[in-house]
Design goal:
Elements: H1 4-13, H2 15-19, E1 26-37, E2 43-54, E3 59-75, E4 87-105, E5 108-118, E6 122-135, E7 140-155, E8 159-177, E9 180-193, E10 201-209, E11 213-218, E12 221-225, E13 229-237, E14 243-257, E15 262-273, E16 278-290, E17 294-305, E18 343-355, E19 360-373, E20 387-398
Antiparallel strand pairs: 1-2, 1-20, 2-3, 3-4, 4-5, 5-6, 6-7, 7-8, 8-9, 9-14, 10-13, 11-12, 14-15, 15-16, 16-17, 17-18, 18-19, 19-20
Amino acid sequence: MKLNKPCLFVSLLTPGLHAKGDAIPQQYDYSYQLYQEENDRIRIESHYVRGKLDITDSTQFRFQWLSDAITGSSPTGAKPGGDQPAIANLEDLRTGILGALSQKAGDHRIEMEVSYSEEDDYVSKGVAVSDEIEFNQKNTTFAFGVSYLDDTIKTVQLGDKRKDSYDFFTGVTQVIDKNTVFSANLTLGFSDGYLNDQYKIVQRDENLTLPDVQIDLGGGELLVIPGEQVPVVNIYRENRPDFRFRQVLQLGGKHYFEAEKATVKADVRLSHDDYGIFSQTAQVEWRQQLGERFQLVPFYRYYHQNAADFFMNDLNNVNIDIPANDPDGSGPHYSSDYRLSSLEAQSVGMRLRCELTDHLTATAVYERYVMKGVGNADTSPSDAYPTANIFTVGASITF
């Protein structure tokens, strides 16, 4: 029934097409993905349904529905083997929907997109507008746009928190020759509001002073024994800045080798933000055609980042009296989230695509993902970094 609703919606908008007996070109995709970290860590089962309908020669509607079931455990930020729990169990369900309508007018294609997703503790509403302009006999495409996310975080004991995110992007795609395409994209992102992860903590070694002990010696004399100091490990909520500015540059290219009937695709992504994180991503894949209906695609991806300026494994060396129970983003800033540490990650995998018929295509993907800390003081304990297997199967049908 979910796939029929967009069709019904389109038929109401375009009764003339159906009255004339014209069919609307349509494409629908379904995929299932299992993301499983080792050692009983995070497990995510995802279902995706996507659709695209060419309402007219110049008007297109697309949509996506997703459902993620999340279970397992994740590091809290506390050090393993200590008095505080280093791993916390979690369970959540996320559902989301996205719809976009695009209109071609001359050399322009303008698109409006709206989205909504909801979890037990998170609600996100988004809108985006973009434009693509073709010129140079359609060999050059210039794109630009803006997006906005309005997020509400339902924090434990602290009530609802807000976060606003704005992205401004621009890019160009250039056909070099009949077999080669190059692209460059730049994104500027701004986030403001509650940027903490409410489930991440930072520990601190402290001393608990026991009360003095008084002994009545009689005759009005008291013996006072000073209370001892007992070492304890306390935990506090992390405190990230309440503003983040990101800059992302992505360069990519594709080239088709006629003799091998194969395409190589390579991308490089550089990202920087005022957290102090500079990251680099490189990805390459080889799309090998096997006969008329099979395609085999091995791929590899490498990622590296340095640690955020405020990453630390504990608060022992932070000059602060009592950390706030409800951090507001003012300094000092601190987080022991391993995702903000100095790290690298590698992925290697294989994708198989098979055209079962002229209208039905099936895909299967396996990916091995490994993350580890790099450096000395700016890394989390090794147990914090995940290793995962990712399986994806899907099917696509066109009419």
